[in-house]
Design goal:
Two copies of one chain form a homodimer. Chain A has six helices and 15 strands. Chain A has helices at residues 22-26, 44-58, 64-78, 148-159, 203-214, 259-269; strands at residues 6-9, 12-13, 29-37, 40-41, 81-88, 106-112, 124-133, 164-169, 174-177, 181-186, 189-193, 220-222, 234-239, 243-250, 253-254. In chain A, the strands form three sheets. In chain A, strands 7, 8, 9, 10, 11, 12, 13, 14 and 15 form a nine-stranded mixed beta sheet that branches. In chain A, strands 4-3-5-6 form a four-stranded antiparallel beta sheet. Chains A and B meet through strand 1, helix 1, helix 3, strand 5 and strand 6 of A and strand 1, helix 1, helix 3, strand 5 and strand 6 of B.
């Protein structure tokens, strides 16, 4: 079985190839969200590394040189922006789930206006969601395009509402926010959930781990019960757009913003790398 | 934040809207695979019902009348075919996971040549895979477009190889094949895995439940440990393309094809509905 005889898009016959993209059919792809500042994609080398790890895990044969050359030239031309890069496995050569290994990866780069937020002044409130995250070690950590769980999490959050919603795995562990990683101060120690059964290994999360270590405030990756959020003294969320954003409340309980967290926020906010 | 300033597809500037489809970004959509025979999509009313349930679960506002009118006219014009219908939430109105609720669902209908297999003569071999399925009650049962687990399962299967690979949930229960539902005869009873924590509520699975009941061979939906496959006396897999396909071996162990299974196969193969 190979190409379809006919393709209809919203009722009209289409000869375009995009309706065959496996990204569309199965979420068979990866993405990166990057903040561009001063003409450069922040932490580009880390994004590049994660994308490469994702491609290897899913056996997507992307062309990293072309991808990153494009990111660099768009970043240079734009100065300040938010980039979303999607790399899919490419067009379905045959019907069905099986990759043939002959697909040609497709890349899509979307350039958005950067928000004008000053991250150092920003803080956020978070709540715990009922929407959960399924566990799959083969998919954990990478930033693939199967994101319905996040979509459902955001839809739940919208009803509550709060800035961010924290999500548990199906086995009841705290994993992340809907669009961020999360760090807690528990019994005086900085901890963050492991992302080896679900969740995304965030770039800012990684930078936080590194910078906190440099501040002698090393963060430990561990299994954290979802209920532990009721016991933390501080918490912050991280992503490429927000940087480090302290939580002033969690499920309505007030949290302090510690000096270490503010220091971490300043250190990371100042870096372009 | 709203529309992107610029979109590049494989290096070229694009003004097309499809790069914004949430199906592509997040697998934020649903699909149905239907066999067309004698100018009709088999079990259309059941596919219609499942798609509606999926739309309700994901809060996708599809236009069922337009969709099914199109399916019917394509089926009538084609006579014999395999249809893949994809319904996505539509274009991303804003950046990020949150649906705005103002998206306009997009439908894609792909028409493939039908295979010439005679299902009554076909049988299959299956093996158990190491690739697993994450559990998420909010996504279980519906045929959504987050299918990387199946893609990974098929990739694993290709290395082995066998016709179908059976997959367990992260909690060690038998759930389904990579592209099929599964029924076992265990201690003389017909059983099939529950699909309330993961897996897809297959249309042929549902028809099998109904027809088996009519034959006084009622199938029970239950939690089945993955290891139970070593104890079954018979097994068959089902999907819309294959119908009921008995397994002649499972992990290399020979299985018989029982009279009931053959009878079920004949009954369902003869129906167009």
């Amino acid at each position: 079985m190979s190409a379809p005889l006919k393709v209809l898009v919203d009722g009209g016959r289409s000869d375009a190839s995009w309706p065959l993209d496996r990204g569309l059919h199965f979420g068979d792809g990866l993405f990166e969200t990057m903040l561009v500042r001063n003409g450069r994609a922040r932490f580009e080398s880390l994004h590049r590394e994660r994308l490469a790890a994702g491609c290897e895990r899913l056996r997507i044969e992307a062309q990293p040189d072309a991808i990153w050359h494009e990111v660099e030239s768009v970043a240079a031309a734009t100065g300040s922006a938010l980039l979303k890069l999607i790399v899919t496995r490419g067009l379905a050569m045959e019907r069905g789930y099986t990759p043939t290994g002959r697909e040609k990866a497709q890349r899509i780069l979307l350039v958005y206006a950067a928000a004008a937020d000053d991250p150092l002044e920003m803080q956020a409130e978070a709540v715990r969601l009922r929407s959960t995250l399924g566990e799959n070690p083969l998919l954990a950590g990478i930033k693939h395009c199967n994101r319905l769980e996040q979509v459902l999490g955001r839809a739940e959050l919208k009803q509550l509402p709060a800035f961010e919603g924290l999500m548990a795995s199906s086995s009841g562990r705290l994993i992340s926010g809907t669009m961020s990683n999360v760090f807690l101060v528990l019994e005086g120690k900085l901890v963050t959930p492991r992302v080896d059964r679900c969740g995304i290994a965030g770039i800012t999360r990684r930078v936080v781990m590194r910078e906190a270590r440099a501040m002698s405030w090393a963060a430990t990756e561990m299994d954290i019960p979802f209920e532990a959020t009721a016991r933390c003294s501080e918490a912050f969320i991280t992503n490429s757009r927000l940087g480090v954003r302290p939580l002033t409340s969690l499920d309505g309980r007030a949290l302090v913003i510690g000096e270490n967290a503010r220091e971490l926020q300043r250190r990371i906010s100042g870096q372009d790398e």
